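Reviewers of the previous submission asked for a worked example of the structure-prediction workflow described in the proposal, so we include one complete record here. The input consisted solely of the amino acid sequence. No template or homolog information was supplied to the procedure at any stage.
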Amino acid sequence: MSVRIEAFRMPRYREIPNVGLYLDQTVKYINGFLEPLGCMEITSSMVSNYVKKGYIENPVRKQYSADQIAYLFVIAIIKSVVSMENIVRLFGRQRVTYTSEVAYDYFCTELENMLSYTFGLKNAADEVGVTTSMEKDMLRSVIIAVAHIIYLTSRFDAMIPQEETAVLPAEEALPAPEAEVQ
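From that input alone, the workflow returned the following structure tokens.
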């Protein structure tokens, strides 16, 4: 997994297609980038629900723009550690403080930074960005939590082949739990 993390790179805002992608194309595009993380994906029904609930804007002529795709990337990545209600709150604060492009590119850089650090690919996390704000600190905390979840998931997944072949000798077998005494 460390090799996949070392090569992992999120598309920056200007690299996201702005020609408009249909729903299935959008889902495939996002999941293609998230696949190396191993534990995140987005589905067509999830995207439709996010639109229906107003988390992202309605597509224009059934096509999703770079802005919507950027928001979907962020939602797909952080929804495992932050409720949708709080994601909406973060987006609201971000819109007041930063443009979508600046906020999304910061998110990408910080995610790559924290993944590299968490997976031991560098000795220290870089300081990303030049400003300080509560929103930036909150987002960095969310990204740290996501990086740790990705790390833990990859480590647990790596244990599966070992668990399948590991058999404890009878004398080392774990005892059966005792019945609860009432």
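The chain has a mean pLDDT of 88. We consider this example representative of the routine output the project will generate in years two and three.
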